[in-house]
Amino acid sequence: MPRCWARSAVILLVALAAACKSGGGTPPTDSRISLVAQSGQSLSGPSGARLLGVPLVQVTDAAHQPVSGVVASLALTSGAQAGFSLPQSTAVSGPDGIVRGDVVLGQPGSASIRVTVTTPSSAEATVTVTATAGPALTTVSPSAFGAGDEVTLTGSGLPSAAAGATVLIGGVPATIVAASATSLRFMAPACVAAGPVAISVRLASGATTNSLGATYTSSVNNPGLAVFEAITVSASQVSQCLSLAGNGARYLVVPQYATSDVVPGSVANTRPSFIVGANAGGAPVAAVTTPDTPLSAQASFDRFLRLSERALAPLAARSGANPPVEAPLAGLTLNSTRAFKVLSNLDGSSFNDVTGRLKFIGQNLLIYVDQEAPADGLSDSQLTGLGKLFDQKLYEAASHAFGSPTDIDKNGHVVVLMTPTVNKLTTKSDCKTIGYVTGFFYGLDLAPQAANSNKGEIFYSMVADPTGATGSCPHPVAEVQRQVPATFIHEFQHMISYGQHVLVRGGRDEELWLNEGLSHIAEELGSLLYERDPSQPRSTPDQIFPDSSQGFINGDMRNAYNYLRRSANTSVTLTQGGATLEERGAAWLFLRWLGDQKGDGIYRRLVETSLTGVRNVEDKAGEPFTQMFGDFSIAAYAYDGVAGVPANALPERYRFLSRNFRVIFKRFFDIGGSDFDRVFPIVPPRFVPGGTVTNSMVPGTATWYELRSGSAPRVALSFGPGAGGGFDPTLGAQVTILRLMDQ
């Protein structure tokens, strides 16, 4: 989709607009735009609901074509006193020209939202959102119950499907057995403190019912879990409330530290030990610790860039998404030249002066090639092919998934500079030990007042160098065509994220674990473009993925496998290891599960916000991270079905819906390769009543065990720190138990 040429002059007209042309030529002389208010069912919901990504207005030009990348201000003009609110005051039009925002609905009635833009011209529109009557509870029967009892709620506005709501008993989720618009039947959970409790229902929309009072009765013998039922319990509650049925029952037991990404350094840099016991005594299960895969040159450089961007964020935020343009943009013509400053070493201490020649002009993208690039590199036709891939497929896929990039240089395009300076970031000997850098984005370029900033949205790429003339290792043309596209879409997510978080909303850049995880989701998007095309060839019949997708997806699969293989060493939420490959695999796997549960639209909501990290995830998912982490830990083992069990036997919440990981990992194992040394990466050590498991793990991760009850009629589980006492509360120590099929 086109991105509009912006002008430094502001034209105070709303109704008419000028065509927004890209792909070269002279910028239009008339830059006026229109805002078209959106309407429909998505602009209403129950009172108290949080509408996520509501389409408010569409930005269009004079030809009624959508204009992306326009920054809009959002403000309530009515409804605030009735409880309506806007979590974000700024939004950006997407590739379809739509400006989307989150709206929290207040009391039944309507509210008005004013959407205003001032660049490239001034325009304003008013949108109405409506709150309908919210869900309500009227009765609970019986009014006194204990763990495992079936309880019925009646009311109005309730969801007709169990997946559409969460019943909370004293804050603890219950298992819904049956659902309709007027009643919910649930099984009372274990691990609720005996005495008076409040019962409420939270809908998937975020709306919450009123509370009803009831009494939770204690039970000497708490019921166990049904097959494929699970529960997540905090460490402090396990031994007090959870009694598991025995007589041959098997359980997946997953101790975890569901740690936030904002914790004291004293916690973040530790590896606390734990003990899981079934009754007491017995020999411990030996801990298995394997070293992390060393950081590659690309991963290490990425980490340096992301940390440097954090320091630059306040400076970039001050200039914002619409800084003054130094000079009007001249017409773009093929083979014209431009000067660039390019980071020339891995520690960021030096820059090279580079002259790039414009070799491709697309709708969204420009490709410049360094005049010093080897002559035997990409031909003009190969550059055009690469440009079309970036411009027409990868750009569109990423901008739809994550939102529009900013356009601080007002050129209507993202720039790609292919330069041997990137090749030279690593030596020939480096290539053999730590690999090489294929490309990067650096947020310095989005801080126009900073020294060495190129003052625009730029991705830097290595060049093809078949003979190693640059002084680094040789890079054949085919290698550049295979590897650079995955790097481009990965770094493009970083570019979009930095612009949306820092420039548009004046916030902090995204936490490293989530930022990298989203960029690996971007790589998967690149793979899906080819996976969904049945015409794409495979070199061998054993391949799951076509040849064209492997440069995008294979690394993600390897990283995820290695995380699960050595999860105790690797945090999902704390990148203390420097965003290792295993940490990237952990973050991608969690986000893949999250997208399967909440819809892939959540990725865009995670980017178009000023929130960061775990708080951002909780806000966009609408539930506590600890609950999500517990359920993810089951899916990480069960994937799309426990071995030998049909996938649909497990609730969707406990599995991945888009990937058959058991089949994928087995295929990689069958094909061979040292990275896939097991059919399945998780082999849970077993323990029995009278036994204990002693291990340690870093904060922000989980590890898996199997409890076999044998002939014991019941099993009381315990979970505590290896050193005695209690866990540090910032660890989020909890254990998730899933009942498996009996022996």
Summarize the topology:
Blueprint: E1 34-37, E2 44-46, E3 50-60, E4 71-78, E5 90-92, E6 98-104, E7 109-117, E8 123-132, E9 136-141, E10 144-145, E11 150-156, E12 165-169, E13 172-179, E14 183-187, E15 195-203, E16 212-216, E17 230-234, H1 235-241, E18 243-245, E19 250-257, H2 265-268, E20 273-278, H3 297-319, E21 337-343, E22 351-361, E23 365-370, H4 380-402, E24 414-418, H5 420-423, H6 428-433, E25 439-441, E26 458-461, H7 477-504, H8 512-531, H9 547-565, H10 581-598, H11 601-607, H12 613-621, H13 625-638, H14 661-671, E27 686-687, E28 692-696, E29 705-708, E30 714-721, E31 733-740
Helix pairs in contact: 3-7, 4-7, 4-8, 7-8, 8-9, 8-10, 9-10, 10-13
What would you say this structure looks like, in words?
With 743 residues, the chain is α+β, with helices and mostly antiparallel strands. Helices cover 26% and strands 25% of the residues. The chain has an eight-stranded mixed beta sheet with strand order 9-11-14-13-12-15-16-10, with no helix packed on it. Strands 21-22-23-24-26-25 form a six-stranded mixed beta sheet. A hairpin with an 8-residue loop joins strand 15 and strand 16. Helix 8 (512-531) packs across helix 10 (581-598). The longest helix is centred in the middle third of the chain and has 28 residues, at 477-504.
